[in-house]
Amino acid sequence: MTQGIDYFNRGHWLTGVQNAVSLRARRRMFELWLASAGAAPGQSILDVGATPDTERLDSNCMLPWFQSCGLRLSLYSPEDISHLARSLPGVLILPPAHAPVIPAPDASYDWVSSSAVIEHVGSSSQQERFLADCARVAARGLFLTCPNRWHWLEFHTKLPLLHWLPRRWHRAVLRRVGLAAWARESHLRLVGAGELGVMAEHALGNRWRVRIRSIWTLGMPSNLVLIATRGDAAGA
Length: 236
Known about the structure:
The protein is an alpha/beta fold and 236 residues long. It has a single domain, classed as 3-Layer(aba) Sandwich (Rossmann fold). It is built from five helices and nine strands, in the order αβαβββαβββααββ.
């Protein structure tokens, strides 16, 4: 997760529309997880990668939804998010860490959630390590969302179709049009459902039950929802 990058592209004229569309999509993702995961009041959940942003309606929108379901909420981000405690009573915020691992013991939370983070952690191997570390901390399951590479609109740059090119070509085009920050793999590496499934298989192994669902927006699957539960979670 890279600090100091405007992941929302706030100055773009489509950002306001995207904000409203994104909020509705994230609510559908949350309801999909809630209906299928079996999370219960009193269980704990760690959200990994919460943003310090408080301007957009969709920023951290799932956090109060978790609390409204009776989950005990903790947050971790490599950025300073201490101010979020003012709007989330009872939340526990882990201190920022510079190491590429979550500063929490194994199986220390029932659930780990991460919304629109995995596409910003770097290479495919780094994305797999991120998944594995989220799983390490989760005693029961994971709830991870990300944009779908194969949607016609790329939501960070607001450019259509170019991200369907081979990654090397796509990055070359972004540099040409003045979007060099988004051309860096450390800032953006989109994945589709097939690639996310392979990563989950490598990172989680056969002790996890993994389901990947899609949320549709603007005529195509726009977001991926990974719900993974430990095989022995029912007896935990």
